[in-house]
Structures are given as structure tokens and as C-alpha cells.
Amino acid sequence: MPFIPTEQQKLAIAYPDSLVVTACPGSGKTTVMAEKISAALKLSKNYQGIIGITFTKKASAELKKRCSSNAKDLKSSFFGTIDSFCYQELIIPFISKVWGGNPRECTVVKKLSNEQAGLFGGAYSSPNIRELDEDIGFKQLYLQNTLWMSSFSALAVLILRESLAAQNYIVAKYTHVFMDEYQDSSETQHDLFLSLKSLGLVATAVGDTDQSIFKFRGSCPELLNSLVNSPGFKHIHLDENHRCHPSITNYANRLLDPNCNLLVTDNIRVSRRVIGGLPSDAAETVSKWITSWTQEKNIGSASRVAILARSANILNSVCKGLTCDYRLISDTPLDSIGTECSDLFSELLNYKYGATQSAQSLVDSLSIRYLLISKKPKALTQLIKSIRQANDGEFIETSLLISAELGLRVKPETIEATREIQASDTLLKTFRPLNDNEVQVMTLHKSKGLEFDVVIHFGLEEWVFPFRRYIEGSRSPVYPDLEQETNLHYVGITRAEKLCVLIRTGLRQNSYGEVKSSQPSYFLTLPQLEGLYT
């Protein structure tokens, strides 16, 4: 169907200068961004592009796909995560002009070893530019040929401040910067966004503070509000949810605001169910529901059903009881290592098992990341293509050759993690194309940005979700992260287009592994939700 924008969307698409768009779930923000990017590219010179920063690689691929269908050549544009942008466009080409050294010899790590962390004068989770200036440990770590991913945004801000060549490069190549999921930005990512705007790029931020769920990673949703109130940005709010059934929107909105107006609806598509036993027992009942829905064609396929929960422990229990086919979407042993090399092995597994269809697309991505000379991609393409038919041992051997071509040093734990994945059918599913017959099982955090016909939300027992802390002598429950947990519940509910089922099991398992009778979650006791569910 052709895109017919609402009046709000028209305003956002047409506005030519710096803009902040606050957007509720299902409001079409990705479509608006794609339309704005297309409009910007039509006015740019042939050698110019835009910066499109998204929270995940999957989101960037979706945004690029939408832009490619209605825009001119995207080769001069960047689509990816903020860490990828910092690394590819600023750190690799320009950090040597600021700190010397050779960034091409550096290993990228997501986690610091104790020895590496010992270089710093303090403990950092998401370091800012002031901390970079004051602590010599950051420069020492780099000169020891290590780049820490958590410091990428601060390094990028430093480079833009200190390197005129970097400034000239950005201004010559890019005309606009777009940043999605702005509520999940850290202080330093905010500084980078404003630094790009100060160079003359037209800046667009898109986000929703009600969907802020990553404060534990250092995100600061208040930064989105600071842009809303900034004279340097026009603010447009997209408040119409085009995704969810009106009754689902009503339930989600009343969760956040007891006094919000309700949409007119002739039926209710939010259902609460209490099922006896543990989540593994309840999964048998849920499996029957899903089988019935698919047989009666109430949903397109089983893959349009998501089973969500706050914790991986609950999902593991659910998976034990599912009798229908499913895919557990979780981090793999390679993800937990967090190096360039482990990421490369994950990408190669994606190609081998089909999640990445084209060898050429992988080669193109690696060529950009590692600035490969013209002859190397041909040899690299042949190596990558050979892994499609390779057995497990041959896959590892070829992956080592590919790593050597890219100048990456492979640590033993990367090989061990790869072998662990190869030995697990559940883990290997992560690298295969999604099967229509597979129900998708994931944490609430991983569901962010996705949408499904049906959401089955487990874990709505007291002590389980929201997180409750025991305070000796206290008569009132204490929920230390209630705002973030409420946002997380809101995100889970609004992934559903047609039906949202909220599950409380009769039994729960506490942190000591003891099985206890359950009580309703705090979220199931809110008086403003009465009458909004069946």
C-alpha cells in the first residue's frame, strides 16, 4: 500500500531544519525518517550523504532498505549504530592525528580485563569527554593497541574537537544527521550529536521517553527532553498509534497515565490469564493456543507470535514446556566475548547458516570497516563463499584465514565459543533465517523496535516483575526500578498488533531456587486498568 502520511507526519517530513520528533509506539517514525532522508538526499550533491544512526544493526538495515526503495544512491551515506559510526568514520581515520599510534593495529573490546581497567584512575561505564581529558588511562589503553567500545563516543567527540581534518571530512561528506531511539542515548552520545550539529549538519532526533529501558547502560532519557526545550530544534509529536488495536493502546496508555483519554473500541484484545504450575507447565497450554491460532488462520504464521518475559530464566523455563517449534533469541557465547574477532565469527556464522544471504554484502561491509585494497575483496569473497559448504572444522580453519586477511588476532576463547555454538541446535538457530513455523521467544529488552500479531507476556508475578527488593522490617513493597520496569512493561504490551495475553503462573521460583505460590504482579493490581482487559 502507498504511504499516506497523517498531518503530523507531513509536518515532520516537510520541516527542513533541525528537528526533534517524539513518537509513541506504532506512530510510523521509521517511515517518517526514511521519507526525510529521501528528501534530504534529493537536495544534496552526488558526493554527499546523510548519517543515519540507529540503536541496533537490524534497525539500521531496515532503515536503509526503506530509503533505498525511494531515494537516490546511498553509497555516500552511513547507516549503522553509533559505535560503528564513531569507529569507521572518526576513530580509524583520525585518532592517530590526535594521539598518534596506529588504530589499525588495535583490538576492539567490549569488556576490559582487570589489567586494562587498572590503567584508569576511576571506574567508568559510559565515559564522557571530561573523563577522557582527565584520565591518561584512555590514551595509554589505546597506545597499548586496545580500543574500548564504551569509550567510542567520547573518542569521537575528542577527535571532532581536536582535528580540523576530521571536521572538514564530516562537513564535506554529510549534510544531515538522524539519530533514532534518542531516549537511549548517553551523555556522550548526546554531546556527539550536538557536535555534528554545530559543524552545520541538519540534525534530527527521534525518540520516546516512555520507551526508555536502558538506564542501566548509561542512557539518559532527560536528554531527549532537553532537545524538546532547546531553541535550536523544532519539536513535533507523533501521538497516533497505527500498529496496535485500540484496546491494546488504551491498556498501555493507562499503565503510564491513569487519567489519559481512551480510544473508542468495540472489543477488548488484552487478556489476563492465570495458569497453574511453573512457566514450563504453562507453556504446554500456550503451545495449544498457538497451534489453534495457526490452524484457524487467526494469525499469518507462528513467527508472528512472540513470547516475552523480563528474565532469561523465565524464558528458559517456558522453552522446556513448549511443544510447538520456537526460536529463542538470546546472546550467544560469541556475543559475550565482545571483540572484533568474535563479532566477525558471528557474521561468518550468519552467512554459513543463511541469516546473511549474500557473500557480497558481507564483503562490502568488511571492506568499509577494514579499508581493504581493491585486490583483497576478491580473495576474501572466495574464502567467505567456501564456508557455506564447510564442515565445522573447515569453518573454523577458513574463519582463521579470513581473520588473518583482515589483520585480526584470534583468541582461543573465540574458537571455544564457536565450537559451543556448533554443538547446540538452539544456538545455531540464531544464525539461520527465521522459519514461519517458529514462535519467537525473547526478553522484553530484545523485543524493542519489533512488532507481532500476538504477544504472550510471561512473568507477571509479584517479586518477579517488577523487581522487588526485600527490606527487613518494611511493611510496604519496595520497587527500586519501578519507572524503568513500567516502561519495559509498556514496551512489551505495545509490540502486539492484534492481541496481548498477560500470563501469571500459579507458582514462581525465587532467587534461591525455591518454588513458591505466586501473587499477582504490582502491574496487575493497578486500579486504572480495570475494565480494559478480559
List keywords for this structure.
six-stranded parallel sheet, alpha/beta, globular, 534 residues
Topology:
Blueprint: H1 7-14, E1 19-23, H2 29-42, E2 49-54, H3 57-68, E3 78-81, H4 82-99, E4 107-109, H5 114-117, H6 129-134, H7 137-143, E5 146-148, H8 152-162, H9 164-173, E6 174-179, H10 187-198, E7 202-207, H11 222-228, E8 234-238, H12 246-256, E9 270-275, H13 279-295, E10 305-309, H14 312-321, E11 326-328, H15 333-337, H16 340-353, H17 359-370, H18 376-386, H19 392-405, H20 412-422, H21 425-428, E12 439-443, E13 452-457, H22 482-493, E14 496-505, E15 507-509, E16 515-517
Parallel strand pairs: 1-7, 1-8, 2-3, 2-6, 4-5, 6-7, 9-14, 10-12, 10-13, 11-12, 13-14
Antiparallel strand pairs: 15-16
Instruction: Output mean pLDDT.
Output: 92
Strand content: 5-15%
Give the structural class: alpha/beta
Distance between the termini: 33 Å
- Outline type: globular
The count of helical stretches stands at: 22
Profile the largest sheet: 6 strands, parallel
Evaluate the radius of gyration.
Answer: 24 Å
Question: Uncertain runs with pLDDT below 50, 5 residues or more?
Answer: none
Number of E-type strands? 16
Q: In what order do the strands lie side by side in the largest sheet?
A: 3-2-6-7-1-8
Helix percentage range: 40-55%
